[in-house]
Amino acid sequence: MPAISFNLKTTATRRAQRYDKYARRIITFCGTAVIATMCLIVAMILGVAMPLFRSPRVTSAATCRLPEGWKAEQLRSLSVVMSIDGRRLTAGLWTANGSAAWLDLRSGNLLESQPLRPPQGDGSQTLRQVESLGENKYALLWDDAATLVVEVVEIRNEEAQPSRYAVRTLAELPALKGIKWRQCSLRYPSDGLVVRAVLSAEAIHVFRQGVRETLLGEEERFQHECVLRDKAIPQITALTLADAGDMLYAGTDDGRILCWRFNAEGEVVERDMLRAFADHRSITAMATLLGDVSLVVGDAHGGLSVWTPVSTENSRKLHLAHHLQPHKAAVCRIFSSGRDKSLLSLDIHGVVHVAYATSERRLLSLGEKDPLEMVAWGTRGDIILGLNQAHELTSWKIERRHPEISLKTLFGKVYYEGYDSPAFVWQTTGGDDFEPKYSLVPLLVGTLKGTFYAMLLAGPLALGGAIYVGYFLEPKLRGLLKPVVEIMATLPSVVIGFLAALWLAPLLEKWLLAFLLSLIIIPVMLIGFLVGWQFLRRCDWLRRLELHREFLPAIPVLILGVCVARILAAPLENALFEGNFRQWLYGTLHTQYHQRNAIVVAFGLGFAVISLIFTLAEDAISNAPHELGAASLALGASRWQTLQRVVLPWAAPGIFAAVMIGFGRAVGETMIVLMATGNTPILDWGPFSGMRTLSANIAVEMPEAPVGGTLYRVLFLCAALLFLLTFLVNTTAELVRTRLWKRKA
Question: Does pLDDT of 437 surpass 50?
C-alpha cells in the first residue's frame, strides 16, 4: 500500500513565514542602524571636543642667514614685523650703532635700513636695550639712558613693488647726566604719555612725561621725576613696569619682590615687599601678563611663577597663584603675549618655553638641540623668531589652538585674577584682557542639584501615588485617575518652565515662610488625623470610606494645613524675623534668597517627572500576579502586609527602573531649568540659590560660541559629559534591575 504524505504548509502559513522573515530582517536592520547612529553621534561629539587637549603645532616658516657684513655681536634685539596684509614675514634687526633694518625671512633679502640717533646725541652713544611695547612699537635706550619711543610703519607701494618700512618717532626722553644706569623699563600706555624707570646704583628714577588737559581745556606738557631710595636697591636684579605705568616691580638677588604704586601725578601711594622664595634664590627676570594684574617671575633655578594680588585686611598683596614648568637653567628674559595669558621665557642656555599662565600648561619648547641667542615674539603670539649660534634666523609658526584648557581648569580649583582664593568658576565673556574661566564643576553640581531637588519632590509623590492607585484604589477610580496623571506628560516643558518662572517664582517669593511652615504643619496634621481616625472609624458610615476611598478624608486635612500655614506666616514673620524673613536669612544665616532657585526648579522639573515615574511604577505594581496577593490575604495577612511582603518585592525591578528613568529625564531637561533658574553657574547646594545645568549651559552659550573656538568645543565636551552621565545612570539601573529580577525568580 503506497505511503500517504500530508503537506501541512498551506499558502497562508508560507505567507506568514515569509512576512516573519522580512519583519525580522527589517527589525534587525533598524536596530543596527539605531545603534550605529548613536555611535556616530558620540564619535562626532568626542571628535569635536578632543582637540581641546591636543598639543600646539610648531612648523618652521622660514630660515635665513644674517646679511653679509652683519655680526651677531652687533645686534641688540630682534623683532617680528607683520605686514598690513599679513603675507610678508619680516624680521626687525636693531644694532648697537642705532640702526634699524628689515629682513625678508622667506627670501633673506635686506628690505630697508635706517640709522637712528638718540635725542641730543653726538653719534658716540651705543644702543644698549630695545624693549617691545606691542603693535610694532619699541623703546630704544642708549647707554646714557637717552630714549626714543618709535613705531615701525609699512609704506605701501604699487602692487608690483614690495612694501618699504620706516621708523616714526613717537616720543623722546633726554639722557640722564651723571647717572650710570643698570637696568631700565619703559612703557607707553597712551599717546602723549611715557613712563620710564631707571635703576642706578643708589636709587630708582621714575620719569613721567606727557600732555594733559588743564581746567581751561588747554593742553600743556608736563614732566615729573620721582626718586625711589630703598635699602634693597643694590640687590635689585630685575625691574619691570606695568603696561599702564602705575606699578613698578623689582626683584632682588635674595628672592624678594618690591612693588610701588603711583597715582596719576607720579607720586608713590603704596609700597610693598614680600619674600617670594624661602631659599633666597635670585630673581632674574620679570614681566606683567596681559591686563596688568599678574606678575610673572623667573628665578636663578629656572623656575617660573605667577603672582596675583589678593585682598588682605588693609590692602591687596601679591600672592603665588601658579607654578609653571621650570627651565633647567636660570631664566633671563620673559615676554608676555598681547592677546591672552600666554608668556614666552628664555633661559641662559638658549632654551625657549611657551606656557599659558592660567592652565599652567607648557605649550612648546624650542632651542633644546639648537640653542638660541636671541628671541622675539610676534604681537599676535603666532610667530617666534630666533637667532642661533650659527647666525641663522629662524621663524616658527605656532598654532596654539586652546592653550587655556587643561584638566585642572576644567575640573580643578584655579587661582583667577581678581579672586582671593582658588575657585571653580564658569565665565566666558569679558573685556579684551579677560581671563576665560571654563570650570565644569559648577555645571555638574548644578545638574545634580536640580535633579536632586526635583527627585526629592517627584520621587515620594510619584511612588506613593503609584502604590495607592495600583494597589489600594478601586478599579473604577483607577481608570479615571491614571489617564489624568499620564496627560501631565504631554504638557510641553517650555510651558512648565514659563509657568514656573513667571507665576510660581513670584508667588513663592511672596509666601516663602508660609511654604516652609506648610512642610511642617501638613505632615503633623496628617499624623494627628490618622491617630484620630482610629477612633472615628468605629462609625459604620465612616468605615465604608476605608475601602478603596482612603484619600477622601485626607483632602480636607491637606487644604486645612495649607490655610493654617498661610494664616500663621505673617504673625510669625513679625514676631520672630522682624517682619522680613528673607532679610533674616541673609543677615543671620548668610543665605541670599534668589527668586528663581532650586525650589522653583523642583516644582517645575518635578511636575514633568512625576507622570513618567508614576506610570511606570504603577504598571509594575498593578501587573503583580493577583494569585500572590490573594494567597497572602487568604493566609490572614492585611493589605499593608501583603503590599510590603509580596507586591513590592515582586514589582521592585520595575519601580527601580521607573525612578532611574525619571532621574535620567531630569538630568537631560533643558527648557524648564533654563527658564526657571537664574542660570548662575555657582557652586552652592542650598535650596534658595539658582544654578546652571549642563544642558541649560549649552543652550545659553550656544549663540556666543564661534565655530571651532574654545567655547564651541567646551560645549561639545559638556554634551559628552551629559551623555556619559545619563549612560552611567541607565547602565546602573539596568544592572540593578536585572539583579532584582534574578533575585525574584
Answer: yes
List the grid coordinates of 205: 628714577
Distance separating alpha carbons of residues 712 and 721, to the nearest angstrom: 15
30 Cβ contact list (under 8 Å, min separation 6): none
CA-based torsion, 16, 17, 19, 20: positive or negative: positive
Q: What is the spatial distance between Cα 639 and Cα 616, in angstroms, rounded to a whole number?
A: 22
In angstroms, the Cα distances linking 569 to 220, 509, 514, 552, 587 are 68, 13, 5, 27, 20
3-state SS assignment for residue 329:
coil
What number of other Cβ atoms are within 10 A of residue 244's Cβ?
Answer: 15
Max intra-chain CA distance, the chain: 140
What pLDDT is attached to residue 84?
45
Distances (CA, A) of 582 to 110, 565, 593, 597, 604: 73, 17, 6, 13, 22
Residue 421 half-sphere exposure toward CB, CA atoms < 13 A: 1
Q: How many CB atoms lie within 10 A of CB 284?
A: 23
Residue listed under C-alpha cell 633679502:
109
Cell of 145: 639712558
What SS3 state is found at 252?
strand
Domains of the chain: 441-697+717-744 (1.10.3720.10)
* Global pTM value: 0.87
Residue 183's SS3 state is strand
- Report the distance separating Cα 629 and Cα 247, nearest Å: 83
Cα separation, 733 vs 743, in Å, equals: 15
Q: Per residue in 236-290, pLDDT tens?
A: 999 999 988 889 999 999 999 999 999 888 888 888 999 999 899 999 999 999 8
Amino acid found at 86: G
The CB density around residue 60, as the number of other CB atoms within 10 Å, is: 9
C-alpha–C-alpha distance, residues 225 and 213, integer Å: 19
Give the span between the Cα atoms of 744 and 655, in whole angstroms: 14
What is the chain's Cα-based Rg? Answer: 38
By residue count, the chain amounts to: 745
**Mean pLDDT (the chain, rounded):** 86
Nearest one of 722, 721, 701, 720 to 712, comparing CA atoms: 701
Helix (H), strand (E) at residue 311: strand 304-311
Best CA proximity match to 322, nearest among 293, 346, 347, 350: 293
- Print the SS3 string covering 340-383: CCEEEEEECCCCEEEEECCCCEEEEEECCCCCEEEEEECCCCCE
Rounded average pLDDT over 293-301? 93
Evaluate if residue 213 carries a pLDDT over 80: no
Amino acid at 263: N
Task: Report which residue type is found at 77.
Answer: S
Position of cell 505632615?
523
- Is the backbone of residue 476 left (phi > 0), alpha (psi -120 to 50) or beta? alpha
Helix axes 512-536, 551-576, angle to 10 degrees: 140
Output the nine-digit C-alpha cell for 435.
Answer: 581671563
Bridge-based pairing state of the strands 268-275 and 236-241: unpaired
Residue 148 predicted with pLDDT over 50: yes
pLDDT (tens digit per residue) in 336-362 = 988 889 999 999 999 999 999 999 999
Tally of CA atoms within 13 A in the half-sphere of 285 that contains its CB? 24
**Rounded to whole angstroms, how far apart are CA atoms 471 and 626?**
11
Instruction: Give whole-number Cα distances, 38 to 42, 44, 132, 699, 734, in Å.
Output: 6, 10, 53, 21, 19
Share in percent of the chain as helix, strand, coil (round to 5): 40, 30, 30
How far is the C-alpha of 362 from the C-alpha of 307, rounded, in Å? 17
At residue 6, the pLDDT reads: 47
Alpha helices in 596-709 (DSSP H): 598-622, 626-634, 639-642, 648-668, 671-676, 694-701
- pLDDT confidence bin for 478, thresholds 50/70/90: confident
